């Protein structure tokens, strides 16, 4: 070790490989972040994600405690375990953040999303759309002679499956709320 | 109301520059003599001066700027403070609330622009909330990991009257980072210290931010255990350079023995440092055989870059106090045999004398200039600032710091133009002390307008320019990485620095002969007023040791080594 080792040639690793997405398994986590509902708080949270190169798959936000002015932001994000830990720590140290919960590890939890689908179809396709809607317990919230607007609530996979089925039948527009999530049980 | 809030926060000086949107606050300052205002020449200067003030006192620096360009000019200094965890409170004027969003004259989305470069910021829309927000701003800036905060105050809010609240009546936000470390984890770390054969303390700016008690505890711990200690650029002075366990700075331009010891240790105790890429080099090969403890007040620093075995979240001072107490209670054990061998190995590395350079009696070598500066200023009540470049690294290598708060440099952001205004902030805080800014010719030109500030307030700052007529650090990289193609890395049309000093009402000294160096330095020290010392140095000197980007610690380049082709293609894309 005491020999003076002066290295020549190329190097393969560097600090910039840290977030190499292939280095480890990518996980999907759902985070619940309770924040003060003050001006700019959402921009702060989103800015953290874009500034540090983290992913946002889904994001929902609403004030959940009107007297305490607290909002709950539910974020679905992906990354290596190390990146997920960083995201939680970075969120946790923000001044308006009260609590960061990782519902994926603190689970079990329930996750629900609401989606609206506008489907334009006539004839057999129209009937098929209605039948499928029934199976998915989607509600018809608007209808004309050549279109429906369906409302579906459920886990993200269910919403995706419904969208896949509607696409060949004439799906023309989609609106989704993003994921809302809570842990199960009394706590 | 703003001035009252500042006074109640113990603020004695504000660095600022007026404009339309802050006139009501300037009016308050005019009528209330309780606060000293230093009029800078550019808002970036105000921010760096506040950093110098904060870094040299441990108190938050306060900046006052107008809306629009005033605020945007301050952004570099705010970002600098964020990167180096310097407590700073910036008050900015804003167009009146009813004009926000209308692209009004000198309107900028200051809160939006500074969101990513502050620890937190606020737009105050209601005068009743103004005092409370300012108090909270001071709390956030100074607690936990310190940093800059900004309070944006629309002009109508400044004009209106509202109820004032004192700091202790102010609504307490919930922001209260934890300072005590987990006792079980501290005990595990202590147990590891008892048996380690090749331990090392690796300390950073967090020790200095934690306060003088932390430095005291660190010193006591190092002396009692006999462990070697190295520090980052930001942590110099926490442990004295004259201390017998001191290995010198580590990192890209750190000392051979420090980097080799980091590479070869079996227990690394990181105290308030953050495994920055200037320190770690190639991550995969960073200190491969060590268990690592990391004491940091910021949970997001832990496991960010390097996985550690003993993560301890807490204030350095508190954690060191507990660790020292536990270590004593368990019988003050260390692995004496292992340590003796370890020190023998370290002494071998030290014997390489990695800072050796070829001196000359024809031309002043930059390293020699700093050795003389060190020798001639050592006993003084001395504060050192730097700009950014080779001179900065040489200053870190060749000047010795005995106490915390004596070394002000832009570490994380590496901001050229930091040093001159920072030296002004330091001198404001310590009017009787010797304040020296070790500068490069190129960096110095980035904020030279602040000479006017030094002159106006009789601040006898000494600007020690190591003039190589080059963007030296850039030139060095081009030599090593870009086939000696020196693209735009020399300083053409440099001003006559002696005349420049005189034009601003200071004294200029030029020196080029090594034989005249000591006299010139003494003349600089003795002169009662701002001085520019134009020290003409060797133009093509390189700064060594150097760990090329993307290389591990034990692949260090030393001065006499052949440096050609030393940096691989992957390393070349790194900064
Ligand atoms: C604001 C800013 N712009 C560019 C750089 C990139 N940079 C780093 S060192 C350096 C050269 C500094 O030259 P000088 O101040 O003369 O110091 P020397 O390296 O010659 O000692 C440059 C351009 C920087 N650090 N900061």
Automatic annotation (TrEMBL), chain A:
Pfam families reported in the protein's UniProt record: ACT_AHAS_ss, ALS_ss_C
- Tell me if Lipoprotein is a UniProt keyword of this record: no
SUPFAM superfamilies annotated for this entry?
ACT-like (SSF55021)
For this protein's source organism, the top of the classification is: Bacteria, Pseudomonadati, Pseudomonadota, Alphaproteobacteria, Rhodobacterales
Catalysis: reaction(s): 2 pyruvate + H(+) = (2S)-2-acetolactate + CO2
Q: How does it assemble?
A: Dimer of large and small chains.
UniProt domain ACT: residue ranges: 30-105
Record protein name field: Acetolactate synthase small subunit
Gene3D superfamilies documented for this protein: 3.30.70.260, ACT-like. Chain A, domain 2
Task: Please state the Enzyme Commission number of this protein.
Answer: 2.2.1.6
| Keywords attached to this entry | Amino-acid biosynthesis, Branched-chain amino acid biosynthesis, Transferase
Q: Which GO terms describe its biological process?
A: isoleucine biosynthetic process; L-valine biosynthetic process
Q: What does this protein do?
A: Catalyzes the conversion of 2 pyruvate molecules into acetolactate in the first common step of the biosynthetic pathway of the branched-amino acids such as leucine, isoleucine, and valine.
Do the record's keywords include Amino-acid biosynthesis? yes
EC main group: transferase
Spell out the family assignment given in the record's similarity comment: Belongs to the acetolactate synthase small subunit family.
A cellular component annotation (GO) from this entry? cytosol
Molecular functions per Gene Ontology: acetolactate synthase activity; acetolactate synthase regulator activity
Q: In which pathway does it act?
A: Amino-acid biosynthesis; L-valine biosynthesis; L-valine from pyruvate: step 1/4; Amino-acid biosynthesis; L-isoleucine biosynthesis; L-isoleucine from 2-oxobutanoate: step 1/4
UniProtKB/TrEMBL annotation, chain B:
Domain (Thiamine pyrophosphate enzyme central) ranges: 186-321
Identify the domain of life: Bacteria
- Show the coiled coil region(s): none
Q: By its UniProt entry, which Pfam families does this protein fall under?
A: TPP_enzyme_C, TPP_enzyme_M, TPP_enzyme_N
What does the record say about how the cofactor binds?
Binds 1 Mg(2+) ion per subunit. Binds 1 thiamine pyrophosphate per subunit.
Which cofactor is recorded for it?
A: Mg(2+); thiamine diphosphate
Per UniProt, the enzyme's principal EC class comes to: transferase
Q: Which PANTHER family match?
A: ACETOLACTATE SYNTHASE CATALYTIC SUBUNIT, MITOCHONDRIAL, THIAMINE PYROPHOSPHATE ENZYMES
Q: What is this protein called?
A: Acetolactate synthase
